[in-house]
């Protein structure tokens, strides 16, 4: 059997009871370690808590080495641990499909995901549109396709959850060209970079999808003891120090229920600026 087991958002102990039982009984346990991180744990603390070896699976192994992962899964249990929920934003459907092709049974042990825990910032999950991923811009690659998706959400008055890029085990262009297996330190996009990139694309497109005054909520280290929210305009977010990763950003839609604003006002960096920004933003996309 192939099991995908969600680890939840932060602590080694966020695994579910069923997830832990599956891990303890498996032949091999892999940790998918490139789409998210467990903020208060690492491989050795997982190994200590489970009392067994955990094999780190990088992108290459998960995407190109599925047969290696699935070896023996016809008779033994193999586990792939995924931070958050296995189907929250990162869909491991490729691995599941390959297992089914090989007639290996599959099962999923779900857990909390950023996709649902984001509700803790005070806006209703019902009022979100499409989720968008924001990648790090490089000197000559500044993709803006996210802009159209945010526009579709904003035209319907819906909130947009932006998941921010993570770069783990990346090679510099030079090292790649020279075939040197030297990896750059991990990088996690912070709120300031996300806001700057969003504002740059609005300046380029000028379609008023959002403006520097558009109200947003910054979500940092959700589900961890240092979880933090901040509600502010996009321009204020470009100055905001969000601290340690991980971070996500919500661009608010303008169909805001009073119960939502009553709740998220407690995170306001500047309450009067935010209140007038909410009124102004209400006039866009009408
Ligand atoms: C590709 S998604 C993976 C989601 C994961 N499978 C889940 O279900 O939560 C990773 C991105 O989600 C966001 N994210 C994940 N966990 C987070 C957390 N605890 N706090 C804030 N943002 C988080 C970050 O933007 C991160 O780069």
Report on the architecture of this protein.
The protein has 2 domains: 2-112, Tetrapyrrole methylase, N-terminal domain (Cobalt-precorrin-4 Transmethylase, domain 1, 3-Layer(aba) Sandwich); 115-282, Methyltransferase, Cobalt-precorrin-4 Transmethylase, Domain 2 (2-Layer Sandwich), CATH 3.30.950.10. It contains 12 helices and 12 strands. It has helices at residues 17-25, 43-50, 59-64, 66-70, 93-101, 114-117, 146-155, 173-177, 191-205, 234-237, 258-264, 271-281, and strands spanning 2-6, 28-32, 55-57, 78-82, 106-109, 132-134, 160-164, 166-167, 187-188, 215-220, 228-233, 247-251. The strands form 3 sheets. The chain has a 5-stranded parallel sheet. Strands 6-7-12-10-11 form a 5-stranded mixed sheet. Strands 8-9 form a two-stranded antiparallel ribbon. It is globular.
């Amino acid at each position: 059997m192939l099991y995908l087991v969600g680890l939840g958002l932060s602590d080694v102990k966020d695994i579910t009871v069923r997830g832990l039982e599956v891990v303890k009984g498996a032949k091999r346990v892999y940790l998918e370690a490139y789409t998210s991180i467990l903020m208060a744990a690492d491989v050795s603390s997982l190994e200590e808590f489970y009392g067994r070896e955990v094999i780190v699976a990088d992108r290459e192994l998960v995407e190109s080495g599925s047969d290696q992962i699935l070896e023996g899964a016809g008779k033994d249990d193999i586990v792939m641990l995924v931070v958050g929920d296995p189907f929250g934003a990162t869909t491991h459907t490729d691995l599941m499909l390959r297992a089914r092709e090989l007639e290996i049974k599959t099962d999923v042990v779900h857990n909390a995901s950023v996709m649902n825990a984001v509700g803790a910032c005070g806006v209703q999950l019902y009022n979100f549109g499409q989720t968008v991923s924001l990648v790090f811009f490089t000197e000559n690659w500044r993709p803006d396709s996210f802009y159209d998706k945010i526009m579709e959400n904003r035209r319907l008055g819906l909130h947009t959850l932006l998941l921010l890029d993570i770069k783990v085990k990346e090679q510099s262009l030079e090292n790649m060209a020279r075939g040197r297996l030297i990896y750059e330190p991990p990088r996690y996009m912070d709120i300031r970079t996300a806001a700057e990139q969003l504002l740059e694309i609005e300046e380029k497109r000028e379609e008023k999808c959002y403006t520097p005054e558009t109200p947003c909520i910054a979500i940092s280290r959700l589900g961890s003891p240092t979880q933090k929210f901040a509600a502010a305009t996009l321009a204020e977010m470009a100055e905001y120090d969000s601290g340690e990763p991980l971070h996500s950003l919500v661009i608010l839609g303008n169909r805001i229920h009073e119960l939502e604003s009553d709740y998220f006002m407690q995170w306001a960096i500047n309450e009067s600026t935010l209140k007038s920004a909410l009124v102004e933003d209400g006039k866009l996309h009408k």
